[in-house]
Each structure stands twice: as C-alpha cells, then as structure tokens.
Amino acid sequence: MISSDVIVEPAPAKLNLALHVRARRPDGYHDLETLFAFCRDGDVVTIADAPTDSFTITGPFAGALMVDADESGAAGADWADNLVTRAADAFRSTFSVAQRHAIVLEKNLPVASGIGGGSADAAATLRALGRRHDIAGDDARLVAIAAALGADVPACLAGRTAFGTGKGDALAPLSGWADTPVLLVNPRVALSTAAVFGAWDRIDRGPLDPADPIGGRNDLEPAARSLAPVIGHVIAVLAEQPGVTLARMSGSGATCLALFETSEQRDHAAARIAATEPGWWCMATRLA
C-alpha cells in the first residue's frame, strides 16, 4: 500500500544558450563554457513511500526508455539501471535511508535530445527525496551525488540560469533571462552525446563571454549536423520566424531552441511549424 504522502517534483528541460568546448581533461571530460537556462516545462518525477522499491515510466516518450510500455503508455520495470534509480540508490546510501519508494517518471521530453532529460530527471529525484527526508537542496552531500551521476546533473539540481565552467559543474548564477518566450523543436532524432563529441573537430575556438551568450556559439553543432543534417533545416526554419532573437542547437542536439520577443510570436511560430513539419516535436514554454 503506497503512502498517501506524494511528492511531485518538476524536471524542467535544460538548455545551453551557448556552448564552447575547450580542452580535453585528464578525467575524460572536456572543459566547457556554457550558459545554462531552464524552461518552465519538462518531465515530472513523483515519489511516494512504499513497501518495496518500484520504478514506472509514463508519458509520450516512455516507450523510448522502456520497450514494454502498455497500451496506456505506462511502462513498469524492476529497479532498473536508469539515472533516476541510480540517483535514488545513491541518496539512500549517502543518507542511510531505509524507507523504500515508488517512483514515477512522466517522460514528456524526447530522449537523447540535448535538453538534459536524464540529468534533469535524476536531479528532480534528488530534490524530491530531499524534500521527503528533510535534506536541503544545496546540501553538499546532495551536490556531490549529482556530480557523480553526470556533468549536467549539478546544474539541473540547482535549476537556475548559470554560467557553467569546468566540465559544466562549476556554476555562477546569472539573472536577466526569466520569462523569455522559447520554442523547442526536435525533428525526432536521437543523438548520442558520445557520438557527437566523437565527431567534434577538437578545435578550441575560444572563450564564451557570459554577458553575451547570443554572440557565442554551440561548438557541437557542426558535429551534430554531420550526424543528423536535418538539424540545419530546423535551425533555418526557426531563424526565419518573426520575433526570433536567437536560434541555436542545445547541448549535443538534436533539439534546437528559439528565443522570441513575445509569446504571441512564439505561439505563431509553433503553429506554423506544426502545420508545415507535422513530424517534428515542439514545446512552447518560457525560461524559468
């Protein structure tokens, strides 16, 4: 019997408004300079106390993670090897928590799409478990768990606009972007981060000015476009929409973003793209 005490935690989409790739590090990561921003929408993680651990995936992209999704779109599994369950296991070990949990991931974001889906889900799981067990979201032990799970997880744990350096986990908060209308578009192409880094030309093209991310670039975009040429078409379509101030690929792709002057311009663009490119995934939202 699951407890009636249920904690619901958003896992918002993570964006890289700019991403400069610098030197390769001895630990296998690359030194990055990036401007992280977060949307108001994304996946959702729900946890509840339970006699045994369980992990269920629902939502439109559940099937991309679990091959046994049922007709309702729900997919259940044993305590599988997923960033969500890895986060839960690490939390239990670090904080000596005996309580078991039923975890539900509502998967609304495309998988392997450059908008931090898995990292955001893991971070949301840590925040939800922290709320349940009275652990502050900025507790150093929680941040250490996030860093061990992946380079983007600390930024997703903080969930605020920040200039990221190092492997992306050294964060300096920034302001001035909240409520900016944004449209996310993915041509329903999944890209492996490792494959995109493997196709990167390894040329250091210089630093990113955190005060001018629009004047920056995404150094992984040419590599991603070599693997999925449709990305170039997506960016071109976004760039030609009225009111766009920035059109760029996010992360390692293939999701692309467009910032708009007004919500009306964003919504008009979303409707136009839905009509002309019905196979693409779109999400109209705002920066948090």
Task: List descriptors.
single chain, 288 residues, alpha+beta, seven-stranded mixed β-sheet, four-stranded antiparallel β-sheet, 8 helices, globular
Describe this protein's structure.
The protein is α+β, with helices and mostly antiparallel strands and 288 residues long. Helices cover 29% and strands 30% of the residues. It has eight helices and eleven strands. The strands form two sheets. Strands 1, 2, 3, 4, 5, 6 and 7 form a seven-stranded mixed β-sheet that branches. Strands 9-10-8-11 form a four-stranded antiparallel β-sheet, covered by helices on one side. Strand 1 and strand 2 (30-50) form a beta hairpin. The longest helix is centred in the middle third of the chain and has 16 residues, at 117-132. The radius of gyration is 19 Å and the shape is globular. Mean pLDDT is 92; it is low at 67-75.
Average residue pLDDT: 92
Structural class: alpha+beta
Order of helices and strands: EEEEHEHHHEEEHHHEEHE
Biggest beta sheet summary: 7 strands, mixed
Strand content: 25-35%
Uncertain regions spanning at least 5 consecutive residues: 67-75
| Count of DSSP strands | 11
Helix content range: 25-40%
Count the helices. How many?
8
Note the gap between the termini. Answer: 36 Å
Radius of gyration: 19 Å
Shape field: globular
